[in-house]
Design brief:
Layout (H helix, E strand, L loop, with lengths): L1 H12 L3 H12 L6 H18 L5 H24 L2 H21 L7 H18 L3 H7 L5 H25 L5 H9 L1 H17 L2 H25 L1
């Protein structure tokens, strides 16, 4: 259900899958994370790109990936050297920060430096927790809907592919996580299909507010669970 709802939001506004699904999946079985969500993260953007690939801001993607590469390495190190319970708190805090920044719609200028920095932060949080969308989304928040969705989709596809490769390299991408991620593609596809009509009939801001509330509650519950485990 978390992946289904997250896919609806990401299909509508360009990001949101990790915000909703990562805390829930981590609470259910922390051993699956962040590998399982990365399988979904690498698949969903392909559906968006199939529809809106002509709107990709390739210059922005290039600078974002440039910053994302070193950030991803740091994120992989966090997965290896930090305990699962500490990572649970880290996931929760990162989601809350992402929710807060997204809800407040902090104004960030879009240029080579800010996109690269956003890519770097996204690399750390995305590889370590599966939540890498908000930093890039904040930079592109003033762009038009199709450009936001297409650019973020290309960035997320490349980012998730890098994260999977790094997690596999450090021995943190298990067969069980890969299998679970493959199963979660089904609700992801259903969520994306539902998002099509919503793009035309619903205001993205209202949908996003509702989901951010769910994500925040999930993050708080995850932090509480990790601290009391």
């Amino acid at each position: 259900m978390a992946v289904f709802v997250g896919a609806i939001v990401q299909g509508s506004v360009g990001f949101g899958l990790g915000l909703v699904a990562a805390p829930v999946l981590t609470m259910l079985d922390h051993s699956l994370m962040p590998g399982a969500i990365q399988v979904v993260n690498v698949t969903l953007p392909l559906f968006t790109l199939a529809v809106e690939w002509r709107k990709v801001d390739w210059r922005g993607v290039a600078f974002g990936v440039l910053g994302r590469v070193p950030g991803g390495v740091i994120g992989a190190a966090i997965v290896v050297y930090i305990s699962v319970y500490t990572r649970g708190v880290f996931v929760g805090v990162m989601v809350l920060l992402a929710v807060g920044l997204t809800a407040w719609a902090v104004s960030v200028p879009r240029n080579a430096v800010t996109v690269a920095v956003a890519g770097f932060i996204s690399g750390i949080t995305g590889t370590a927790t599966g939540v890498g969308g908000p930093p890039i989304a904040l930079v592109y928040q003033n762009a038009k809907g199709p450009q936001i969705r297409a650019t973020l989709a290309m960035f997320f596809f490349l980012s998730a592919a890098q994260s999977i490769a790094l997690l596999a390299f450090v021995g943190e991408f298990s067969r069980r996580a890969a299998t679970t991620g493959a199963v979660l593609i089904v609700p992801m596809v259903l969520g994306f299909l539902v998002s099509g009509p919503l793009r035309r009939y619903l205001d993205g801001g209202k949908v996003r507010v509702a989901v951010l509330v769910v994500a925040a509650v999930s993050a708080v519950a995850l932090i509480a669970q990790s601290l009391t485990a």
